[in-house]
Amino acid sequence: MGTYNLLKGKRGIIFGALDENSIAWKVAIRAKEEGANFVLTNSPLALRRKEIFELAKKTGTQVIATDITEVSELEDLFEESMKILGGKIDFVLHSVGMSPNVRKNIPYIELDYDYMHKTLDVSAISLHKVLAVAKKLDAINEGGSVVALTYIAAHRTFSSYSDMANAKSMLESIVRQFGYHYGVAKNVRINSVSQSPTRTTAGSGVSGFNAFFNYANSMSPLGNADADSCANTCMFLFSDLSKMITMQTIYNDGGFSSMGISNKLINQYIDAGCGEDK
């Protein structure tokens, strides 16, 4: 992939880089290649894995531990980031999602509601907190860009995605509603990217992930979009090339979101003896 200086001189905050399989990790690498300076942040628990410090070394940046659900910690993050980077922020990546119900394989119709509250707080409400803190502190430059990672389960039912689907629906609603208010106030753009199933540490924790992945790959005319492709889409959304795009969900999914069924899947069912014409 070539570089185009799309983010030259821009400052950012990237939430959620865990290891080299993380989409946020790929976004950080690409953002550096495109000329950006940024701060990396994740929860104190995630930082115990240590890999993020390798990413910081590669990209010449600093890591700040932040509980994304705590407003006071987000305030500290934005203030410290502006000091480190020497000015207001131009872009933010929200790449955060977690469901205790999914981790513990609790069926959707038997959800633990305390766990569900945690899912919603970490995976969706946290975006509202990030945006509210940024607006209160006037921490994002005029015309800045915020991108949140989502999934098509916000609109369609995937049987094992559980309460993460509810969280993604809320996340996309926050993108639209806050996108209006922040757009009117500061021309700040807020969008979400709906990515193909991707072999990340978080994604692979969903029950039946391999089936998700293979089904989407068979359905999509271009096949599944990988994490590097998602990072490139984020570069576009962070850049000045997307100045008039806001409050949108961008489907970086190889065409999956527009498909009903593909010939490849039809042939697979026929080969399995499930769909012969009579």
What general outline do the C-alpha atoms trace? globular
Mean pLDDT: 95
User: What separation lies between the terminal Cα atoms?
Assistant: 49 Å
- Classified in CATH, the superfamily is NAD(P)-binding Rossmann-like Domain
- Which parts are unreliable, with pLDDT below 50 for 5 consecutive residues or more? none
Number of distinct beta strands: 7
SSE order, one letter for each helix or strand: EHEHHEHEHHEHEHHEH
Secondary-structure-derived class: alpha/beta
Task: Kindly describe this structure.
By secondary structure, the chain is of the alpha/beta class. It has helices spanning 23-33, 44-47, 51-59, 71-85, 100-103, 113-137, 163-186, 209-219, 227-238, 263-271, and strands spanning 11-15, 37-42, 62-65, 89-94, 140-150, 189-195, 249-252. The protein has one domain: NAD(P)-binding Rossmann-like Domain (Rossmann fold, 3-Layer(aba) Sandwich), CATH 3.40.50.720. The mean pLDDT is 95. It has 10 helices and 7 strands. A 7-stranded parallel beta sheet has the order 3-2-1-4-5-6-7, sandwiched between helices. Helix 1 runs parallel beside helix 3, helix 1 (23-33) crosses helix 9 (227-238) and helix 4 packs across helix 6 (113-137). The protein is globular and about 65 Å long.
